[in-house]
Design brief:
The protein has 213 residues and is an alpha/beta fold. The protein is 32% helix and 19% strand. It is built from seven helices and nine strands, in the order βαβαβαββαβαβαβαβ. The strands form two sheets. It has a six-stranded parallel β-sheet. The longest helix has 17 residues, at 23-39. The radius of gyration is 19 Å and the shape is elongated.
């Protein structure tokens, strides 16, 4: 951390309810769901944003269970990262002529928009999951009817990490933007910080697409 007089922070997940579990625990949940789905005769389909989130999940998957099939949008980003030297598990791109029966026990990794779509129906009976920090909120889990399971994982800082980062700077003034700004700034003020809100015109992160990064 670099000491500073003023610190600007996003607070997408600036509520105490947002606290991420260790990544190993999330990996165990996802791989357990994968294995259980296969045992039930279902194809697990995991929804994750194609840029970044899908590759993070790919690195957590236990490919001893079976192969990983990828939607074209996911595969394009994965290919670029592989070309840059990132070690990621082998994947099979889903093409129009792919027969799912040739890939038993496979998990399908696709953008959230693919869940429940005509593209997904080629895989027969599926079990759908969605990976997002928003899965911590019960209301969001209920509204995301396309998914059977929600896995809480995000690339944004959770509540403890936000507080840790702010404290580490030693800053006299804290500016929060993009997220739960009103609540978070009030809490910071109550704790003795000189906190203010920086409005943003960017509105691309609603509850259902909040952690695409």
């Amino acid at each position: 951390p670099v000491a500073c007089h003023a610190f600007v922070s996003e607070c997408t997940f600036g509520l105490p309810v947002f606290k991420w579990a260790p990544q190993a625990e999330v990996a165990a949940e996802i791989n357990g769901w994968w294995a259980a789905s296969v045992a039930e005769g279902r194809t697990p389909m995991l929804g994750a944003y194609a840029l970044g989130k899908a590759q993070r999940l790919l690195a957590l998957l236990d490919t001893a269970i079976g192969p990983v099939l990828t939607h074209g949008a996911v595969e394009e980003v994965t290919r670029v990262l592989r070309d840059q030297g990132y070690a990621l598990p082998e994947t099979v791109r889903v093409t129009p002529d792919l027969d799912p029966r040739d890939h038993p026990k496979a998990l399908v990794l696709a953008p959230p928009s693919a869940l429940g779509s005509a593209w997904a129906r080629r895989f027969g009976v599926t079990s759908t999951g969605f990976a997002s920090g928003w899965m911590r909120l019960r209301g969001v889990r209920r509204r995301r009817r396309a998914a059977d399971r929600g896995f809480v994982i995000s690339d944004h800082a959770d509540w403890p990490a936000l507080i840790e980062a702010i404290t580490a700077t030693g800053a006299e003034r804290i500016f929060v933007t993009h997220g739960y700004t009103e609540i978070f700034s009030r809490w910071l003020t109550a704790q003795g910080w000189n906190a203010a809100i920086v409005p943003t015109e960017f509105g691309g992160e609603a509850e259902d697409d909040g952690d695409a990064a």
